[in-house]
Amino acid sequence: MADLIEARALAGLPHGFSDQDGLTAANRPLPGPLVTVRQVHSPDVATITGPWDDGAAPPAADALVTEVPGLLLGIVTADCAPVLLADREAGVVGAAHAGWRGAAGGVIGNTVAAMIALGARAERIAAAIGPCIAQASYEVGADMHDAFPSGAERFFAPGSAGHWQFDLAGFVAWRLAESGVGIVEVAERDTYAEEGTFRSYRRATHRGEPTGGRQISVIGIA
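The chain above was modelled as a monomer; its predicted structure follows.
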């Protein structure tokens, strides 16, 4: 079992991005409850005050924020960008699942806004973008290209006829900067290319393999 991948920007906070082996007692950065949501590629954010009641279904959302110590926020990905955020001074943390739909739809700005509502300040927030599919591995068609807002063209490099190579991590970093986030760190790890280390939905699809495997990314307040 590998240790969680940590970000320099979040040093000293309980956090990490897993490899394909996931989260276990051996690499868990906090012993408290792990809180997740039902991810649906939306721009929606859940503000967490405690673990869900026993038997209760988690709400549909693609980001979580909290100011409650002892909770571990978690999101799962397998090519989408996991984003962990923290304002140490305010004691507020967040975790976001940024697939292209959520990223284009505003999940990053909404996560920052939800943290601000709990007392964070954007310029004090440090954010880390974890392992995700890299531009060289991410060919997309016109339907996706045309779904992005004005200003995003710089993140699409020419590909094969009628296609582009999309820089998901770069777009997410831009969204964080546009939201006023003070520090942004990018892991620069390619889930598609790093076979044997990360699960990749796209790689599995291309090979006709099962697509259920995921990484988990977590953050909390000690």
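The longest strand covers residues 81-87.
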